[in-house]
Amino acid sequence: PHRASPQSARRTKSKPRAFSIRSSAEAPTSPSPASSYSGALQATEIKERCLKWRWKGQYTINYFVAQSPSRSPPLLLVHGFGASIPHWRRNIETLAQNRAVYAIDLLGFGESDKPEGFSYTMETWAEVILSSLAKLFAP
Predict the structure, then answer these.
(1) pLDDT tier, 1 (very low <50, low <70, confident <90, very high otherwise)
(2) Residues 24-78: tens digit of each pLDDT
(3) How far apart are CA 118 and CA 128, in angstroms?
(4) 58 partner at 20 to 30 Å CA-CA among 17, 51, 66, 132?
(5) What is the pTM of this model?
(6) How far apart are CA 53 and CA 128, in angstroms?
(7) Which of 46, 49, 28 is nearest to 37 (CA)?
């Protein structure tokens, strides 16, 4: 049987931390349903407002824009593995109060193309992100 080391035993006895971590996809703690949560976009609204552009002239990249009257630098939201633009639905409107917000679906995710046999690598996604920055934030 596995025995805990003295260090791990001490860690388990430590006092709980006073903060909590919540993902952007979690519902707010509120008596009202998430659909009526003020400041949250609905997934259908995001899908209707999304735009497309062609990466390398052949792959469609899906993106979303929330404009802001502020002159602050724009913000690009990039989802994690297995996610897509709607995962930002509870963050976009709040962030857009102070700056233009852009969100993209990386190649192979969400509403962006999912080419068969394509080599999905971190380097490829980095290229998509850099190209998105150049395309979306060009003066």
Answers:
(1) low
(2) 343 333 333 333 345 688 988 999 999 999 999 999 999 999 998 888 899 999 9
(3) 14
(4) 66
(5) 0.68
(6) 11
(7) 28
* CA nearest to 25, candidates 108, 92, 101, 100: 92
What does the mean pLDDT of the chain come to? Answer: 78
* Angle, CA 123 vertex, CA 118 and CA 96 arms, to 5°: 100
Which amino acid belongs to residue 95? L
Residue 39 gets which letter from DSSP?
A: T
Separation in Å, CA 6 to CA 14, 15, 119: 13, 17, 45
Q: How wide is the angle at C-alpha 116 spanned by C-alphas 45 and 128, nearest 5°?
A: 60
**Residue 1: both structure tokens together:** 């049987």
